[in-house]
Task: structure prediction
Amino acid sequence: MSGTKPPATPSAAPSAAPPALPAPVPKAEARPASWPASPGARMATRAERWALVIGTAVVLLFSLWLFSAILTPFVLAACIAYFLDPPARQLTRLGIPRGLAAFLLVMGLTAFALLALLLLYPLLVAQIGVLVTRLPAYVAGIGTLVRQALERLQEALGPELVDTQLRDLAVRQAGQIITFLGTAVARLIGGGVALFNVFTLLVVTPVVGFYLLRDWQAMMARLESWLPRRNAAVLRQLSRDTDRVLSAWLRGQLLCCGLLAVYYATALSAVGLELGLTVGLMAGILSFIPYIGSLTGFVTAVLLAMAQFGTWNGVGMVVAVFVAGQIVEGYIIYPRLLGDRVELHAVWVIFALFAGGVAFGFLGVLLAVPMAAAIGVVTRYWLRRYLESPLYLDPPRTGS
Result:
């Protein structure tokens, strides 16, 4: 019977429990006085959320403006890491360590860029020499062709519509256009290396690109862990949509530009255009800007053909090259490489590229398409929210 008494002692436990409640107080007192006290769990206000969004945007824009002079190699390295992340993941699945995969990919891309520079730059410089030497002959050739065309037009329409002064003015303007284009192309290619610091291009960008590519997955996971918990799911979905749009456009567009550059350079050289390599590469690379790039290459090639050949047959061959290129681009290259995955309108891309270039130069051009993709995704998200909200779905008023 005496063993029945001990079970009654647990009733004293509740009396001992209340003194354990103030336990956090000594812990708080142990905190250094310089540390702010934790506010505890609470709901963030709307003003705090907007302050976070606006403050983050202001800091990013201010940092972009402040460090724009040195950000180009780092942004270029980030583009390289983003572009090479899918093949790096594939190599990792094959058992190759991520660091080794990043090193091989970055070194391979750097070697390819150096090889292309070593092979193409002397050819481009040689063509610039041809352009400078033949520029007076080009001006005379295009003047003769324009004069012949205007004489035929004068015979067809009569001297009252096409007089001698108008014909001479057109010939002079055509010659000035050829001189301007030739000088601009010569300066662009001759000073192309000066656009980039050699040390930055050959050392900083590959090194930064290697480290970014090696740690890309870890950095993305860390950034995701910093997202506000309240909106984490929505922000993750927006980032996935942005990545889908951006990767489809960027990788597809780069492949399209490479294929078109090879086609135009080969085809224009084959028809006998002396500057076919330079104009073809320029037309392919500028195809990164929808419509404007191919149009610029077409106009330049036609004017050079008029200046060099002096006959409409040579000009017709150049026109045929670009017509065939547009057919291949519109019906084969773009549908196969891009298809319906791209949700960036051409006008929006053109505006973004020009706006970025005006605001931050080459750095702005690098950032233009990613920012355009992100803004487009966010805009479509808010449009869907609006179309599902009472602001749009409120029934119309039926009476006064």
